[in-house]
Amino acid sequence: MDVLIHLFVGLHIIGIAALLGGFLTQMKAMGRGTARFVPAMLHGALTMLVTGVVLVGLNEAQDHHVNTIKIGVKLALLIVILGLVYVKRDDEKVDKSMFGLVGLLTMVNIFIAVLWT
């Protein structure tokens, strides 16, 4: 079961890499006001959601301690990110503040995962 958990942790990291990587590749365009949400950002956020739910389930099944408050905060941030990216995914240009908010929330989500123990 531990191998399965580690597999899903790896997939979760790939999801965050796709979301953050999509944001970082559009930063120059954000400065020009032409940034857009690329498909990798949506797919990365969806990957994070699915793998995160699976990870919570696998850890609960093994009677590992799951910090439900931490998971709830991370889930709330991810739902906001997903909502913004999903609604604006077809727009040619996204407002700088909205695009920046997605990047900020993504980084906050990463730091919560790493620092909140």
Structure description:
With 117 residues, the protein is mainly alpha-helical. It has one domain. The chain has five helices and no strands. The radius of gyration is 15 Å and the shape is elongated.
Indicate the topology.
Layout: H1 2-25, H2 27-32, H3 39-61, H4 68-87, H5 96-115
Helix pairs in contact: 1-3, 1-5, 3-4, 4-5
Gap from first CA to last CA: 22 Å
Number of strands: 0
- Using only C-alpha atoms, the radius of gyration works out to 15 Å
Helix content: over 70%
The structural domain count equals 1
Number of helices: 5
Query: What kind of sheet is the major sheet?
Result: none
Structural class: mainly alpha
Mean pLDDT over all positions: 96
Portion in strands = under 5%
Low-confidence stretches: none
Q: Order of helices and strands, N to C?
A: HHHHH
What is the 3D form? elongated
Keywords for this entry:
5 helices, 79% helix
Concise synopsis of the structure shown:
This protein has helices spanning 2-25, 27-32, 39-61, 68-87, 96-115. With 117 residues, it is mainly alpha-helical.
